[in-house]
């Protein structure tokens, strides 16, 4: 019972992160499970199966709060499911260690770009009726690659797809996060089928972990969806970028054998900079409404004068017309 409670708390924490930032359920859950004493292999397998339930709940919650573009979900999730199934059944045994530092470097660069962009120049929210800005030609290969990386590399659907869609700046961050979270259900289900074929009876060793993660994720999904519908785009984008930098720097530190004080200093600097810029983006978002309100008030104050001028002009035109009536 205590272990189930621990795994449930891990699921709650991981889903709060994933549901608000559109990524990192696998990274967060796996890290917390390993810290709690679970073996790395069992933690990775359990996370993939648990994500079937958590992503379903997350997608439903994001739909409830209007954070989903269903065209993006289908165009991204279906090819993502194909890539995930192939990665789980065919390529999961192939080592991806050689490609890990390259992928981490690319994602870290994207994270830096997101932090700088969203903290300095947050995008405006798009209208809910806006048509999908991303074509199938763009989303299909992105989904295939993201699904393949997620299944064969032990995670990465959110970092690959969410970060890429955010960098285009064509959709509101909350719509990107909601759509990616919903499409991840297809990816997780497809990967789970592949892992079932590969794991066989070993799957049943992870039932308690899966149950705890799924329960915690389902509990936290509505909370995360509510948060993402309330947090401003600047804060969301900066948070996503900071998370990318932190998680991928960990991979690079491990690959290049950077340990001890240099590694600790690196983590501290990343956290301090990310938190500082996130706070800056939050403060900037709080001052923006006041500025908008002042501009609106000024515009409203000018309208009576314009209306008055228009009325005077109309009256003048009326008088002129009156004097031009022909006399018989």
Automatic annotation (TrEMBL):
Residues 291-328 are annotated as: Disordered. Keywords: Cell membrane, Membrane, Transmembrane, Transmembrane helix. Its main location: membrane. It is a multi-pass membrane protein. The keyword Transmembrane applies. The chain crosses the membrane at residues 72-92, 98-118, 177-200, 207-228, 234-253, 265-282. It is found in: Cell membrane; Membrane. Belongs to the 4-toluene sulfonate uptake permease (TSUP) (TC 2.A.102) family. This is Probable membrane transporter protein. The lineage of its organism: Bacteria, Bacillati, Actinomycetota, Actinomycetes, Mycobacteriales.
């Amino acid at each position: 019972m205590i272990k189930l409670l621990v795994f449930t708390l891990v699921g709650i924490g991981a889903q709060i992160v994933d549901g608000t930032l559109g990524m990192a359920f696998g990274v967060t859950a796996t890290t917390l499970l390993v810290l709690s004493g679970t073996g790395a292999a069992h933690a990775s397998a359990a996370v993939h199966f648990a994500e079937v339930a958590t992503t379903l709940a997350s997608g439903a919650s994001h739909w409830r709060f209007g954070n989903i573009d269903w065209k993006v979900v289908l165009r991204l999730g279906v090819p993502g499911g194909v890539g995930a199934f192939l990665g789980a059944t065919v390529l999961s045994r192939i080592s991806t260690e050689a490609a890990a530092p390259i992928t981490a470097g690319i994602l870290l660069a994207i994270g830096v770009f997101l932090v700088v962009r969203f903290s300095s120049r947050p995008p405006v929210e798009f209208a809910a009726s806006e048509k999908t800005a991303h074509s199938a030609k763009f989303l299909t290969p992105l989904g295939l690659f993201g699904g393949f990386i997620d299944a064969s590399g032990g995670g990465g659907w959110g970092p690959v797809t969410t970060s890429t869609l955010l960098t285009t700046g064509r959709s509101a961050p909350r719509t990107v996060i909601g759509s990616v979270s919903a499409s991840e259900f297809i990816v997780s289900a497809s990967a789970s089928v592949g892992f079932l074929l590969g794991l066989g009876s070993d799957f049943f060793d992870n039932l308690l972990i899966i149950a705890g993660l799924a329960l915690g994720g389902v509990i936290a999904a509505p909370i995360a969806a509510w948060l993402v519908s309330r947090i401003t785009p600047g804060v969301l984008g900066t948070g996503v970028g900071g998370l990318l930098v932190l998680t991928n720097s960990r991979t690079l530190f491990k690959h290049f054998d950077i340990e001890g004080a240099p590694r600790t200093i690196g983590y501290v600097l990343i956290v301090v900079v990310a938190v500082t810029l996130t706070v800056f983006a939050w403060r900037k978002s709080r001052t923006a409404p006041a500025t908008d309100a002042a501009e609106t008030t000024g515009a409203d104050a000018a309208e009576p004068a314009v209306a008055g001028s228009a009325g005077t002009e109309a009256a003048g035109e009326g008088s002129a017309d009156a004097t031009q009536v022909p006399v018989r």
